[in-house]
Amino acid sequence: MKLSSTKCNQSTCFLCQSVLKGWQPLISLNKKNFEFKKGQQIFKEGDPVKGIYFIYDGKVKVHKYWDEEKEFIVRFANKGDILGHLGLGTENFYPVSATALEKVIVCYLEMDFFESTLEVNTKLTYNLMRFFANELQNTDRRMRDLAHMSVKARIAQSFISLKNQFGKDENDFINLEITRQDLSAFSGVSYETFFKVMVELNEQNGVLAIDKRYKIIDENLLLKIIQDDQQKQVAKRKLK
Q1: Distances in Å between the alpha carbon of 227 and those of 66, 157, 170?
Q2: What is the pTM of this model?
Q3: Which residues contact 43 (CB under 8 A, 6 or more apart)?
Q4: 172's torsion region: left (phi>0), alpha (psi -120 to 50) or beta?
């Protein structure tokens, strides 16, 4: 991690857009911009909470370990997203880790100043509340899917989710370089299982994989896998 000379664009920043204009100079005085290299941790699960981060540029994975070897990716974060907000709870430790997937620049505020900002700026507090609500809904939906969907449907859902979040590049690849290990951790499956399903999806011309890049060839196929799995789950519940 190093200090970055990058200047935030206050006209597009989530934080600056949500505070009173008179408060923006205080943010400029209190914020720090940090730069992280690919693979660097922004903060680690169990670290004491010291501040909150707003992503200015780059992509980040938010993850945790169930044991020393099993990693689970909670979500991916992109430009404009917030990191470290779970540290606003009563426990003074981050419950997850955040790691840069590429060069990342963040705007950092110490927690004391951020909490003062929330007390003064009701619009920011309201927008943050909506952000929390959306994230809670997404997390609840993902946990439900991981609990009930088949392995193949989970992997299909992961590709659809990543395409929707990051979009596609000029060659129609998902605009995110990601390892197979991270994709399996995001899907909640073992690496070996992910590899077997990827071979099957490739043979069905559903997904093309080249190094760390992925292209959805047949989105309808992935959607059908998800839909068929959901119908099976509904049928099982009716039988009960």
Answers
A1: 29, 10, 29
A2: 0.87
A3: 53, 83, 84, 94, 97, 98
A4: left
